[in-house]
Amino acid sequence: MGRNVMQTITEGYLDAPVFRIVSEVAKDLGVRAFVIGGYVRDCFLGRPGSDIDIVVEGSGIRLAEAVGKRVGSNVSVFKNFGTAMLHYKGVEVEFVGARRESYSHDSRKPIVEDGTLEEDQLRRDFTINAMAFSLQEEDYGALVDPFGGIRDLADGIIRTPLDPDQTYSDDPLRMLRAIRFASKLSTPEHSFRIVPESLDSMRRNASRLDILSKERIVEELNKMLVSPRPSMAFRLMDETTLLDHILPQLSKLKGVETVEGKGHKENFSHTLQVVDNVAKEEAGSEPNLWLRWAALLHDIGKPSTKKFVPGTGWTFYGHDIVGSRMVPKIFLSLKMPMNEKMKYVQKLVGLHLRPIALVDDGVTDSAVRRLLFDAGDDIDDLMVLCKADITSKNPAKVERLKKNFELVKEKIVEVEAKDAIRNFKNPITGDYIMDLFGIGPCNTIGILKEYVKEAILDGKIGNNFEEADSLMREKAAALGLFPKP
Fold first, then answer.
1. Which residues constitute the domain of residue 200?
2. What's the mean pLDDT in 221-226?
3. How many Cβ atoms are within 10 Å of 357's Cβ, its own excluded?
4. What is the mean pLDDT of residues 334-338?
5. 36 by DSSP, 3-state: which?
6. pLDDT at 407
7. Are residues 103 and 162 in the same domain?
8. What is the β-pairing status of strands 111-114 and 99-102?
9. Domain total for the chain?
10. Which of 94, 119, 417, 457 gives a 20 to 30 Å CA spacing to 3?
């Protein structure tokens, strides 16, 4: 294979001191070194990062250790992968020896052998990730681009160096990476697309996802979700049938059914719009991955609750509760964390209709208190989700709902400031009841605490010990319970 070498036309890509140091040390060792992959791609996109990959025609570990010795940095060696890494002046540099790969049909783990730069570039996933900068003294900074990656980058194209069937069959994770890059790299000014032959290949190879670990799949999903416009990635997964293999529950949201001339909202498109709306709300701040998962799954219970009621139309009664119950099963199937992160998503899915209901029914202090009590510290995230859930093709309707929604937010602030319900703690404790009445653990304690809690949430008494204690004693007397002498 011939090498297509052209001089870079933009300066500044290799200004960091580490590049000259690697160049000099590689020369001393008699090996050739190149900057490769994402750093090169992102330089041309005007957003160079601090993670640098160096490929060496020789031992990457040996070069890393020699560079580490030169600059006085510790080197982390990963012998199983033939890689090494060091940090120097704010950048992370990973070294690997150039290699060629071959695959067996039932595994994405390759058989790896030493290779040349050209062979290493050939094994890369996409042309835009196969470009390299030379660190040799004689052509320092030259672009080594055998597959036209610079042209594809300019044209906004995601394309594999090899036949896509071979690339995706060998390592099916690359199908998800293609989709993730199309979503991640696209901007309003410069969009990226996957070439048609690659999309066709994904459809043919979709079942190859079965050989991947759930953890690797979820890693890609998470990266898609925190991109500026996640809907692009999920539409591409749907278009290529990959979604059916990963999140079939989401695929079931697709389509509109019509009875007696009445149709319902296309829930798949709506869901993706909600996720995008959350992303817009978070623009400029650190993305909340789990809030975006909640947005993605908020209507997951609709297919099983869909019902046509003559004279009324389509209903999805209880889809919030059903969806909440589905969340743990989905997390478990994807081997996602079953800890407080799952519970957070489950809570938001289960509560996502509550603020909207306050808009429809008129806002009462009691209803707001109960929402604050149930949402706790997640009330702000819930409100972001609920605002994002306001979608319609009728701009006037959206504007009206958003104005009403702002009234609910104001009422929440007002009630929270007055009653401090968000982190509600019952003024009456079980220990206090047992000590006051001289009783041991029993159901009566729960009855009294619940009675006080409901009275506070209903606004019958204030959220303070004096009023709570007085009411609790009245209820206890009605149950035939009196303070010990």
1. 156-246
2. 96
3. 13
4. 96
5. strand
6. 80
7. no
8. antiparallel
9. 3
10. 94
**Which pLDDT belongs to residue 10?**
44
The Cα–Cα gap between 305 and 260 comes to 19
Residue 343 forms part of a structural domain: no
Comparing CA positions, the residue from 13, 20, 85, 92 lying closest to residue 51 is 92
Angle at 406 between CA 402 and CA 410, to 5 degrees: 170
Q: What is the pLDDT of residue 205?
A: 95
Give the residue from 45, 9, 40 showing the smallest Cα distance to 191: 45
**Distance from C-alpha of 15 to C-alpha of 241, rounded to nearest angstrom:** 44
What pLDDT is recorded for position 7? 42
Please, which pLDDT band fits residue 250 given cuts at 50, 70 and 90?
Answer: very high
Reported as a pLDDT band with limits 50, 70 and 90, residue 362 is: low
Structure tokens that stand for 133 in this block = 């900068």
Please write the tens of the pLDDT for every residue from 428-472.
999 999 999 999 999 999 999 999 988 988 888 888 899 999 999
In the β-sheet with 5-7, what is the strand arrangement from edge to edge? 5-7, 142-144, 132-134, 32-36, 51-57, 91-97, 83-88, 75-78
**Whether residues 232 and 197 fall in one domain:** yes
80 to 59, 84, 170: CA distances (angstroms): 13, 10, 20
283-to-71, 155, 288, 294 alpha-carbon distances in Å: 39, 26, 11, 17
